Amino acid sequence: MKPFIVLRDLTKDYNGKVRGLDGLCLEIYPGEWVAVMGPSGSGKTTLLNMIAAMDQPTAGSIYVNGVDLLSLTEEERARFRREKAGLIFQQFHLIPYLTTIENVMLAQYFHSMADREEAAHALQEVGLGERMRHYPSELSGGEQQRVCIARALINQPKIILADEPTGNLDAENEKTVMGIFHRLHDAGHTLLFVTHDPQIGIQADRTIELEHGRIVPALSTKGPVLSSFG
Ligand code: ADP
Ligand code: MG
Fold first, then answer.
1. Rounded to whole angstroms, how far apart are CA atoms 11 and 198?
2. Is 79 exposed, middle or buried, given 0-12, 13-18 or 19+ CB atoms closer than 10 A?
3. Whole-number Å distance between alpha carbons of 123 and 116
4. CB 69 within 8 A of CB 80
5. Residue 21: nearest ligand to its CA?
6. CATH fold group of domain 5-219
7. What is the mean pLDDT of residues 135-139?
């Protein structure tokens, strides 16, 4: 099986000074669920931003499904973000004056045409069929995060990138949201999932631990790549 995401010697310097990533190498297989762990400032968000084509590295290369992300024009990168990557953040980034269903349709709007039926379907998938006309302020944290998941799923992305998506949730909401991620994994999505919580990390197929923009081999669990080499 060919890796779906290949990162080679990825380095990111901010303002020519702060090193966000430092020669990071990583391969992720189709349908794999990788948990990204590591202390604050270790480069987790920077890594996600690179794979989402939201930012470009200072050096190194990024291939997603055989496509060299660094060879793309700005317009092609925008298209990649819309069509291939689903992004979920710790802060929900919902528009306060739009209802639940309008927030989801907004993501569609940037894709092509907003389709109320599809948005409603995505909300039903995350168990929010009854909350479509509510505003973000009327929803619990867990419900808001589920709106964000519906929004990220609306364009059927192959890759789902989640940056501490359970960081602001209580135990019960966390369980509901993790149930959705398990379903997405079962449905074959490739998941890259940043978390601080080891209990959540172990639910993934593999854990990588970052420190100073590099992968710490001793603390990272073996995935298909490493295990095939013994
Ligand atoms: P994490 O998500 O693991 O907390 P980040 O990827 O956000 O880590 O940050 C890695 C390093 O890069 C940190 O030292 C951080 O301060 C720095 N950094 C991140 N984003 C920026 C930015 N936009 N400008 C300058 N430095 C940044
Ligand atoms: Mg971060």
1. 26
2. middle
3. 11
4. yes
5. 1
6. Rossmann fold (3.40.50)
7. 96
For residues 191-198, give the mean pLDDT. 94
Atom 17 of ligand 1, nearest CA residue: 20
Q: Domain spans of the chain?
A: 5-219
Q: Which residues line ligand 1 (CB under 6 A)?
A: 14-15, 18, 20, 38, 40-46
Mutate to test the pocket of ligand 1, among 18, 24, 49, 216 (most ligand atoms within 8 A of CB): 18
**Is the per-residue pLDDT at 142 higher than 70?**
yes
* Higher per-residue confidence, 117 vs 31: 31
- Tokens representing 19 are 């090193």
Dmax over Cα atoms in the chain, in whole Å?
Answer: 54
Q: Which atom of ligand 1 is nearest to the CA of 163?
A: 2
Query: Helical H runs in the chain?
Result: 44-51, 74-83, 100-111, 116-125, 141-153, 171-186, 198-201, 224-228
Residue owning the nearest CA to atom 15 of ligand 1: 41
Which listed ligand is nearest to 36 at the C-alpha?
1
Give the model confidence (pLDDT) of 158-188 as tens digits. Answer: 999 999 999 888 898 899 999 999 999 999 9
User: How far is the centre of ligand 2, averaged over its atoms, from the C-alpha of 38 (Å)?
Assistant: 10
For residue 75, how many other CB atoms are within 10 A of its CB? 8
Query: Per this entry, what is the length of the chain?
Result: 230
Q: Report the nearest atom of ligand 1 relative to the CA of 213.
A: 10
